[in-house]
């Protein structure tokens, strides 16, 4: 098959390209330019080392519309966004699939860790990688059935550390690439200066307790996220956590340790993968991740009116509006996902 590989120049995409080539596929790389500052040189070096052609695709307008703008607006509304989810759905996989369809490719591929499957009902889904530390299925819940049908993930369950060691042994330039641990487009200094540069300075307001009693002043809601304990800028004689952020009143609710746990949540903007889309119904015996690094936990779900009402078997810490809730069955198949509303 002729396969278009999203090639950043890092270890993951390099070895994914090699695996496809070794399997007999005709592989070509594609570097996706998300911002004006994006450097294609690592991808160019990797393509030369792999002996494959490289296409440089301009994604800047899509990235601005679907990633940067929603990212800054979410923080100004008191939500904590998942920019990688939006990027995969509306930019990375979309651009790769569109270019592939227009240029005679059979499939697209990326260096994500996970597996693509197809159920007896004909629906495509991402299955969690057995490599728990590197599983990236959480970031792929937003993909459409058409995108999933085109996508292959060659790395599946492979060990990232072993890939890095092999890259060093073979002299790949990718071995010297720093692994991206944070949001790729943020400059040094964190997200607050980035958001306020684009949206304006967020006005200060009140810290309050759950009864609405004023505890002190905060610097602006953009500085806080649900579950945060450090850098609150207020001393109350005990550890306090952010429990809620209210854009309308410009108030940040603080609670003592333990108060940041919750046994229920509401999730909207649902998108279904392995599970047939449903407007109403109840689900049990399934699992949910409310954060990328969180282990899946048992949950009961009632779907009604395009939203999912969640009931935990064990309370979750810091249920954060704007983050993704991603649901799996016991075999690790991604059933559906959505955004936490409250």
Overall CATH architecture of the largest domain = 3-Layer(aba) Sandwich
- Protein structure class: alpha/beta
CATH superfamily of the largest domain: HUPs
Give the tally of β-strands. Answer: 17
Task: Return the string of H and E elements.
Answer: EHEHEHHEEEHEHHEEEEEEEEEE
Shape: globular
| Neighbour order of strands in the largest sheet | 12-15-14-13-16-17
Helical content, roughly?
A: 10-25%
Defining key terms:
3 domains; alpha/beta; SH3 type barrels; Elongation Factor Tu (Ef-tu), domain 3; Rossmann fold; 17 strands; 342 residues; single chain
Note the topology.
Blueprint: E1 2-6, H1 11-22, E2 26-33, H2 41-50, E3 54-58, H3 60-76, H4 83-102, E4 107-109, E5 115-118, E6 124-127, H5 145-150, E7 151-152, H6 160-170, H7 191-199, E8 205-208, E9 214-218, E10 240-246, E11 251-256, E12 261-272, E13 280-289, E14 297-304, E15 307-317, E16 324-328, E17 334-340
Parallel strand pairs: 1-2, 1-4, 2-3, 4-7, 8-11
Antiparallel strand pairs: 5-6, 8-9, 10-11, 12-15, 12-17, 13-14, 13-16, 14-15, 16-17
How would you portray this structure in words?
- The protein is an alpha/beta fold.
- It has three domains: 2-176, Rossmann fold (3-Layer(aba) Sandwich); 202-256, Adenine nucleotide alpha hydrolases-like domains (SH3 type barrels); 261-340, Elongation Factor Tu (Ef-tu), domain 3 (Beta Barrel).
- It has seven helices and 17 strands.
- The strands form four sheets. Strands 12-15-14-13-16-17 form a six-stranded antiparallel beta barrel. A five-stranded parallel beta sheet has the order 3-2-1-4-7, with helices on both faces.
- β10 and β11 (251-256) form a beta hairpin.
- α3 (60-76) runs antiparallel to α4 (83-102) and α3 (60-76) packs across α7.
- The termini are far apart.
- 42% of the residues are buried.
């Amino acid at each position: 098959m002729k396969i278009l590989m999203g090639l950043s120049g890092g270890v993951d995409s390099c070895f994914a390209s090699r695996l496809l080539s070794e399997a007999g596929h005709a592989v070509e790389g594609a570097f996706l330019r998300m911002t004006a500052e994006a450097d294609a040189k690592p991808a160019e070096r990797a393509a030369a080392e792999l002996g494959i052609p490289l296409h440089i695709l301009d994604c800047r307008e899509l990235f601005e519309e679907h990633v940067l703008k929603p990212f800054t607006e979410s923080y100004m509304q008191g939500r904590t966004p998942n920019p990688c989810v939006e990027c995969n759905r509306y930019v990375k996989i979309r651009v790769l699939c569109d270019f592939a369809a227009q240029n005679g490719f059979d499939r697209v591929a990326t260096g994500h860790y996970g597996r693509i499957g197809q159920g007896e009902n004909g629906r495509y889904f991402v299955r969690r990688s057995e490599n728990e530390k590197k599983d990236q299925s959480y970031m792929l819940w937003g993909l459409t059935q058409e995108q999933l049908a085109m996508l292959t993930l060659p790395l599946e369950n492979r060990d990232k550390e072993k890939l890095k060691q092999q890259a060093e042994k073979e002299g790949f330039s990718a071995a010297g690439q720093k692994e991206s641990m944070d949001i790729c487009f943020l400059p040094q200094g964190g997200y607050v200066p980035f958001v306020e540069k684009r949206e304006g300075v967020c006005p200060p307001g009140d810290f309050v307790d759950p009864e609405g009693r004023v505890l002190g002043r905060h610097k602006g809601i953009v500085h806080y996220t649900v579950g945060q304990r450090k850098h609150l800028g207020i001393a109350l004689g005990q550890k306090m956590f952010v429990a809620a952020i209210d854009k309308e009143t410009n108030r940040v609710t603080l609670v003592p340790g333990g108060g940041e746990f919750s046994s229920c949540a509401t999730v909207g903007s649902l998108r279904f993968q392995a599970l047939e889309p449903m407007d109403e119904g109840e689900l049990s015996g399934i699992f949910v991740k409310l954060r990328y690094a969180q282990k899946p936990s048992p949950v009961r779900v009632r779907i009604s009116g395009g939203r999912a009402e969640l009931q935990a078997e064990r309370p979750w810490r810091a249920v954060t509006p704007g983050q993704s809730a991603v649901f799996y069955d016991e075999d690790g198949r991604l059933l559906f996902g959505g955004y936490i509303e409250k």
